[in-house]
Amino acid sequence: MTQLTWLIPIVTWLAANCCCCAQSALSTEFEDTVGPLLVARCVACHGSEEQNGGIRLDSSAVIKSIGDSGSKPIVPGAPEESELLKRVRSRSGDDQMPPDGDRLTTQQVSLIEQWIRAGADWPASDENDKSHDGIDQSQETRHWAFEAIRDPQPPTVPDAAWPANPIDRFIRAKQEEAGVDVVSPADPHVLVRRASYDLTGLPPSPDEVREFLAERNDPRTSMTAYANLIQRLLDRPAYGERWGRHWMDWVRYADTAGDNSDYPIPQAYLYRNYIINAFNADMPFDQFVTEQIAGDLLPAETLDERNRQVIATGYIAMARRFGSLIERYPWHLTVEDTIDNLSRTMLGVTIACARCHDHKFDPISTRDYYGLYGIFASTKYPMPGLELFKAQQNFVPLVSDEIAAKSMQPHRAEINRLESELQRTLAESQAKALENVAMENTLSIDEQRARLHQLDDLLLAARKSGEKLADFLKLIPSIPTAYAVSDGAPQDSPVQLKGEPLRPGVVVPRKFPDAIGGQVLAPDVASSFSGRLELAHWIANPMNPLTARVIVNRVWQRHFGKGLVPTTSDFGVRGDLPTHPELLDSLASDFIRSGWSIKHLHRLIMTSQTYQLASVDLPENLAIDPNNQLLWKFSRQRLDAESLRDTLLVIGGELDQAPQTQPYPFPDRKDWGFTQHHPFKDDYQSNKRSVYLMTKRLTAKPYLQTFDGPDANVCTSSRDQSVTALQALYFVNDTFLNEQAQRFATRLQSAAESDEETLVRCFFQILSRPPLPSETQLLHSYLNDARKSLAGSNKAETQAWTSVVRCLLSLNEFFYLD
């Protein structure tokens, strides 16, 4: 072999200069060295399943691609310009590749460098995007949630008389396949209570129970009694309050901003009332979604219509605020919160992690994320106030343009001057911060310190500019405004490398995620508008595979306690599979055909036999389906915190059912001085429905914490149903509960009826049914014992009846819906 070493230079020259020999030699080199190296060390994060940084290294397409950083991973013939080589050579924690574990050896780095320098040849056999294990990744299996909604026909079932509507046929077919039977229908008393709480969050009155029972027992009305009951409930204002509260859970409604000082938002209630009114009016859900994302961009014939649509964008404005400094305000976190909630609430997917890297499980890329980010970066959010900017800014007027302009005319010039000064100082500090980051690896320690001092001076100037503007804004007479958004300067967003705003990468056009359509803004729209209106239309498009499925599943979950997809805000790969996929698609298709009517969906679900089943167990079914996934019975549900409080007020005769149409009595804005150490903490109690109680983000009410109320900082997909000692102690010791029990006992006494008649009234009010003979006997005995033990005390009779009422309130039958 040593005698042939003189051939090596010749072979090398031929490989580099002879076309056929070079192709053969380089192809062999790639297949034997570089290709296996990329597979072993790179493809796990840059392959078919993940493309971190927007780079895929198992396909020749990488030769023409641009990474999220804006650089080309591979520039044939130019290793010094190839980002791949820079990263494998780097020793910086932010840039080095692989990011952790064993680094590439010097020999391996040299192999990549030689391959790129020689032209980065990629064998033609790999042009079809096949991975090195032979699997064709171009035909990857799509997850069910991203497939088009189908409209399956309900299956036939042997017992054709049992199903009341198509829902039952889908449900019964699964049950028969598993060999489970269904329980008997619920007792009418149970059904009227269940329906009333489901649709209004309030108990039925004794008269309503008796009216329903009379209709059910009358041959002339028995067939329509239940449907009529549902319609009466849907027609009540209480319906919008109940289902508006559900929507408020999902969009994380609050009356404060969530920043370090938790600044109050007096105008937030307008958005809450918009939600309630929309549900009561049965606004088509696609319109409901569109108005909340882009109502300000929709045409309006009247000022009232325009104001309603502007107020609807309170959904976008409701995104959390962070920090306390105007000069370092982290707007990127507010935009991130917007995207996270929008994706969970309306699309049922989690995409927040794509801010830093491609989604590890779902087909959402970092570029998809920043395609959405640009839409909201082009949106002007209102500023509720901050510790060091104690004024509202960019709220939207609810008066005509003429009146708004006239009211602001005496102050406009000074506002424009101060705003320009603030924007200039903010831009200067931002530019200096970006410049410092870009140059940090090229400067000495002394140079870095000098630059930091310059940045501090710019930030201080920005803070002083902000303080001057805030002080001036607080002096301007106020006009009616909405906590809403408007269009700002249209701009596409750069990828923020690893989620850091000071590390911009490639600029991404505003767009919808590829897995859900991939629509891109038209050039004329992109140059003039944020793209929110187009985003709203993309989400509300009946061809979108997610929107209708997600809301149908949410409504089902609130009726049955669990969704057909149990993970109601995560339809992705890490979420649960639907228990009844054909039923889900059938409901979604019917929902769209109905004109996106939520009330139609309620009627369809609640008139099914499945919904009307009793909540009793069958031992043979428990052995097969212990979690009731097949819906062979109605699963018991606990009253949520709001329904419990509202019911106690109803029992005590204290509930004020008038809507809250005025702002809370916040302190005058001129006196706002909230800080991180002294945040806004006021509370305003009332006897109105719980949906109208003020909601703070940083300090939740202890009562709501005890009974698993919503978290106003995030999308609350479903409420917990914990069982704790604190809940039991509440029913024993809480002042509010005892006051309502005593008020009810006082009213019972005033009726001057016999004990038996009073007990019937008591049962109907609390449990929506008459007492059983055994219960009457037991409680009559208890009442007499209480009278004896309380004899001689003040208001002994009232105290005795109060004790009886509290006994009924402590029953599981009161606390749970059967």
- The overall average pLDDT, rounded, is 91
- Secondary structure tally, helices: 31
Uncertain ranges: 1-27, 126-140
> If you compute it from the alpha carbons, what radius of gyration comes out, rounded to the nearest whole angstrom?
33 Å
Query: What's the end-to-end separation, in Å?
Result: 88 Å
Q: How many strand elements? A: 8
Kindly report the spatial arrangement of strands forming the biggest sheet: 1-4
> So what's the oligomer here?
single chain
Biggest beta sheet attributes:
2 strands, antiparallel
Helical fraction equals: 40-55%
Structural class: mainly alpha
Approximate shape: globular
Amount of beta strand:
under 5%
Write the layout of secondary structure elements.
Elements: H1 7-17, H2 19-41, H3 83-89, H4 106-117, H5 166-178, H6 188-200, H7 206-217, H8 225-234, H9 237-250, H10 268-280, H11 285-294, H12 303-312, H13 314-317, H14 331-347, H15 366-377, E1 379-380, E2 396-397, H16 401-439, H17 445-473, E3 481-482, E4 486-487, E5 493-496, E6 504-508, H18 523-526, H19 532-540, H20 547-560, H21 581-593, H22 598-606, H23 619-624, E7 637-638, H24 641-651, H25 702-706, H26 725-733, H27 735-750, H28 755-767, H29 773-790, H30 796-809, H31 812-815, E8 816-817
Antiparallel strand pairs: 1-4, 2-3, 5-6, 7-8
